[in-house]
Design a protein that fits this description.
Number of strands: 7
Strand content: 15-25%
Mean pLDDT: 79
Distance between the termini: 34 Å
Number of helices: 7
Oligomer: single chain
CATH topology: Arc Repressor Mutant, subunit A
Low-confidence stretches: 1-13, 21-33
């Protein structure tokens, strides 16, 4: 299910469903960001992802780990070809596009990475350890994407899908607009 709406449409949806958000309801975060100063934190996070995958019977190969670390290190969603270039530059090795796409498909299946459909780009998820509806706020100017986890939104989507007899396979919702820094830029 893909939904790209403006802030005005979001406001009307919130009024229609009588939704109000408090800070306690809303888990909003950028995906993990790793830098050279955060190596141990990234390794701990990677160990956690490896453990989750292992519990699911999946394996985090060196390429899968490298792709995930690269997604953590960038400040915005990244397309597959740009990701391939970043990996190649970092390792002095060429990667075939099908290998990158297979790796991204695997990471998406595991819930570790999400695809930003409107940008044809990928971003690390904030909570890969549990299944939830991905709701992204995507900036039209800088391309940054912020993931929101809100049980109220998920409940509404699930209730409407059930009422309509719709079986949801994948839950990604995108809202397009402008982030705070881009709103301040003339």
């Amino acid at each position: 299910m893909r939904l790209a709406v403006t802030h005005r449409t979001l406001y009307h949806l919130m009024q229609y469903y009588n939704i109000t958000f408090s800070e306690a309801d809303l888990c909003m975060s950028h995906p993990k960001r790793c830098s050279t100063n955060e190596t141990s934190a990234c390794e701990e996070e990677l160990d956690s992802v490896i453990a989750v995958c292992r519990l699911r019977g999946a394996r985090m190969t060196p390429l899968r780990q490298a792709v995930l670390k690269t997604l953590w290190s960038v400040k915005r969603p990244v397309g597959a070809y740009e990701l391939r270039d970043l990996l190649s530059d970092a390792s002095d090795r060429e990667f075939a596009p099908p290998s990158i796409y297979r790796t991204l498909d695997f990471l998406c299946e595991q819930g570790v990475v999400a695809r930003i459909e409107s940008r044809n780009a990928y971003v690390a998820r904030i909570h890969p350890d549990h299944d939830h509806t991905c709701v992204f706020l995507v900036c039209e100017s800088c391309g940054d994407a912020v993931e929101i986890e809100n049980p109220k939104v998920e409940t509404l989507i699930n209730e409407d899908a059930k009422r309509l007899g719709f079986a949801v396979n994948r839950r990604v919702v995108e809202f397009s607009g402008f982030c705070a820094p881009c709103q301040r830029t003339p």
